[in-house]
Amino acid sequence: MAYIEHGLAMTGARASAARTESLVADGHKSDIESTWHAFSHSARVRTQRLDQHSVVFYEGDTANRVFEVIDGAVMLYKLLPDGRRQVVDVIGANDVFGLPRGLTHDCNAETLTKVTLRVFDRKDTETRVEVQGHINRCLMAQVEKLHDHAVLLGRKSAFERVASFLFRCIPDCKTDDCDGSGVHKCSSSNMITLTMTRQEIADYLGLTIETVSRVISEFRRKGLISLEKQDHIRINSLCGLCRMTGAH
Amino acid sequence: MAYIEHGLAMTGARASAARTESLVADGHKSDIESTWHAFSHSARVRTQRLDQHSVVFYEGDTANRVFEVIDGAVMLYKLLPDGRRQVVDVIGANDVFGLPRGLTHDCNAETLTKVTLRVFDRKDTETRVEVQGHINRCLMAQVEKLHDHAVLLGRKSAFERVASFLFRCIPDCKTDDCDGSGVHKCSSSNMITLTMTRQEIADYLGLTIETVSRVISEFRRKGLISLEKQDHIRINSLCGLCRMTGAH
DNA sequence: CGCCGTTTTGACACTTCTCAACTTACGTGG
DNA sequence: CCACGTAAGTTGAGAAGTGTCAAAACGGCG
Fold first, then answer.
1. How many angstroms is C1' of D11 away from CA of A211?
2. Quick one: B131 and B88 in the same domain?
3. Sign of the torsion angle spanned by Cα atoms B162, B164, B169, B173
């Protein structure tokens, strides 16, 4: 399986830029070049590496490829005409994105980290059974994640949103692991490395950058977390944070 | 194909009740009784009718059936432990629901109207290819709808949310039909019959019942809409309302 | 006709946003 | 290696939007 390095990655529509510029459908060039290679079962599949902050596709682009994240994270977001942005999903390893209802993508896709993707021809996803089953499971998981996120956006306070977000970032640890008893089952290092900027977090949580910053500072003052660096957060009280998510 | 009338439908967890009572996983009884009938291709399928405000399933219930709406509307919602509710989706005709990532349902399902459902055995949806393709398309559409709803919940004002909601309720009319020119392509009657109570609308839009009421009153004062009855709304200015959705 | 649940309206409180200034972190070039 | 410039993040004060609580109005149904 050939890895295709390409040095074309330009810095895509960044957070700050996205706030002010409204991106219109035409005249865009995503950071993915189409160099297809034959694959097993006569399907066209390839693996692709992208730098951080690369654009995979724009809203409105014709959707003829489907992507699976092998490694790294991809952010999906939508823009309102006046520049307001909402990050609608963050796609991690083993998850799929770029599946449209119609002919075009409904949102923009941008890498949050260095990313390795598996790229499928869209037609194959519609004809090959084993791929369909996989996509099906990914879509169901995505729907559930979006349901949870709707609860977060519609009903949770800023504190609860940030706490939920930080929790989500702890590797191998879910809110379900906490039963409110004060003892956590997960034994991770409780060390988070954020791949998103404050602006991206804010746009994901439906808040402003200032509110996110204030809440994180407040958590720090309360001793729940410590900031080793701006994007390196240590969770001091897993249960203390968990109690603030609103899920218990 | 046999329609099975059943008179067992009790009034499920209603909006007001759901606000105060937290629903725990055990001891529930949904309004659907399992009477399976043999169907073509050796799959177990049946058609079922339910009254308004019937419970299809609860969050945490074992998910061994998948549902397709033939006629009517079903509401999916989640509850936080303190009673806050978020309606995560409203499922209309030809759409599918009850597809879980794991073994149990991630949300509650309740009918908004009299509903006719087609009920599948879950195993069939995993093995039969023609069903998978259909489910796949439904899931993709659902993901896009949830993306849109995330934008609404995360980035739109109360006015924009209610305007977007009313627009969504106009049959055969989408926000895309409006280009801001003042002329609307869709030629519907501009008459809406709401199937949701104010509480349900509020829980769908991430607002309070009072805010929803106030916004509707304000739209009425501005002449954008008229209320023939509380749940019968006439849209006087389609474009005026459209301009308030934030989508243009 | 009167009751009860839903909706509307009002006054006020509180959360979050906005705007502005300041601080910190990071990369470049001297 | 340090100084500088720029971008990112933090903090503060005030404004705006939405929530909360309470009361009144409305609508459906016995």
1. 11
2. yes
3. positive
